[in-house]
Design goal:
Layout lengths: L2 H17 L4 H16 L3 H15 L6 H14 L2 H12 L6 H17 L2 H18 L4 H12 L9 H10 L3 H7 L1 H21 L14 H11 L1 H15 L5 H18 L5 H34 L2 H11 L4 H15 L5 H18 L4 H14 L8 H9 L6 H24 L2 H4 L8
């Protein structure tokens, strides 16, 4: 079978199954079964499929994923994250768009503790959005920062999706985790500046609040009690990796233990919250492991069918420079992000993108962060960005999807600006991982 026909058949079958409403995981496994029979030798191919499932889920590099997920679930279900947001709310005073700034600062801090984009958006949306609307904030200024900041959780460690991307793309996990810190902070700074400038130019967007003035020392107390100790967990996770003291798996274990210790110390850990955290961790981790187990066989089928090599040869024949090829790959991902979820995008594109990146001699950590940035942006791109639907679930009933998309648009544009900065100036990404003690 010619490789274009094989490629069209595999992708066509996959998209057809997804269009029928079959869950992504089962759609990939269905295509893998068909491909194993056709391209991997029938019964022998099915045996290889089972072997791949076993080897994928037993891959030690995936260990940080459930541990990072567990950290975020403990923070969320014990209410520690909510207390931290309240403390930040008290600390920030007399600034244009104050509650929107609280959403950005609080969301960034929670991102460094949870790694969950949807939990970040749901928590900020359910707590800050009603208060913003009560005080007369414009919906674009109220919902936009929450949507934008939600995606930062995918960049700043602990990030389970970054671990999965690194594992599937064969990128050093520690390097990719650490490399996401500066891009995440740059995104937060862009959001912060946008809110301050826009609310300064048009104060009607965020009416000033008549709050009694408290001494700074009094406002600092909740921050020192409820935020600073939690930030030590981030220091434990990131510092142990940077110092070469622990591997990503070991640092994730340290973070999981530290989150439970913090919950006990704050007297917020109950059997119900602990059991709920364990259950939600198991659900999310099982989904990710199923995706990882489908990835290896799908890559093998594409290789055996000749699709991967054939497509690479066609691209080389175009004589495009590295810049054009990288830009093309990112544009493909941005387009796919309007219709597909992040896991599907990784599974479909990585078998093609990573061999091409290696052939071009790219810095794989830098390239991996560019991919992660696009995946993060796709969380809020219409019409099917997942965070748009999370916001719809927590927003007031009269909020339309159009309102949410309008609110998200400026922040998507700011994220694209950040992506261009990382693309044009790679040291923004590569500087911090170079400090890791090997």
């Amino acid at each position: 079978m010619a490789w274009p026909v094989a490629l069209a058949s595999l992708l066509g079958a996959l998209l057809a199954m997804m269009a029928l409403g079959i869950p992504v995981v089962f759609a990939f496994f269905g295509v893998n079964i068909l491909g194993a029979i056709i391209f991997l030798g029938g019964d022998a191919g099915l045996v290889q499929l089972l072997r791949n499932v076993s080897s994928s889920v037993s891959n030690f590099s995936l260990v940080p994923i459930p541990l990072f997920v567990f950290m975020g679930e403990v923070m969320y279900h014990t209410g520690m994250a909510q207390r931290a947001i309240d403390a930040i709310d008290r600390l920030i005073y007399k600034i244009p768009g104050r509650l929107s700034i609280v959403a950005i600062v609080g969301g960034t801090i929670f991102a460094a503790l949870s790694g969950s984009t949807m939990a970040n958006t749901a928590m900020l949306g359910s707590t800050l959005l009603p208060e913003m609307q009560r005080r007369g904030y414009d919906r674009t200024i109220a919902m936009g920062p929450i949507l934008g900041t939600g995606g930062i959780a995918m960049l700043i460690p602990p990030s389970g999706l970054a671990v999965l991307l690194a594992s599937l793309a064969k990128i050093p996990i520690a390097d990719l985790l650490i490399a996401g810190i500066i891009p995440g902070l740059i995104f937060a700074a862009l959001f912060f500046g946008y809110i301050v400038v826009r609310c300064t130019l048009d104060p009607r967007l965020a009416p000033a609040e008549d709050r009694p003035r408290e001494p700074l020392a009094r406002r600092m107390v909740p921050f020192l009690v409820y935020v600073l100790p939690l930030m030590l967990i981030f220091v434990v996770v990131v510092g142990s990796i940077l110092g070469g003291v622990a591997t990503p798996s070991e640092s994730a274990a340290l973070g999981g233990v530290a989150s439970v210790v913090a919950a006990v110390g704050y007297r917020r850990l109950t059997w119900q919250s602990f059991a709920t955290s364990i259950l939600e961790t198991a659900k999310i981790s099982a989904m990710i492991f199923f995706i990882a187990s489908a990835s290896l066989t799908f890559s093998q089928i594409l290789a055996f069918s000749g699709a991967t090599q054939g497509l690479l040869e066609e691209l080389r024949a175009l004589n495009l420079g590295p810049t054009a090829l990288i830009a093309g790959m990112l544009l493909v991902l941005l387009f796919m992000g309007c219709f597909l979820d992040q896991l599907s995008m990784m599974l479909i594109t990585l078998p093609f993108f990573m061999p091409l990146a290696q052939a071009l001699g790219l810095d794989l950590v830098w390239f991996g962060i560019l991919l992660l940035l696009v995946l993060e942006i796709s969380f809020t791109t219409p019409p099917f960005g997942m965070l748009l639907f999370v916001m719809k679930g927590v927003a007031p009933p009269d909020t339309t999807m159009r309102d949410i998309i309008v609110a998200a648009t400026p922040f998507v544009l700011l994220e694209l600006l950040g992506l261009v900065l990382m693309f044009l100036y790679p040291p923004l990404v590569t500087w911090l991982p170079a400090l890791i003690q090997r």
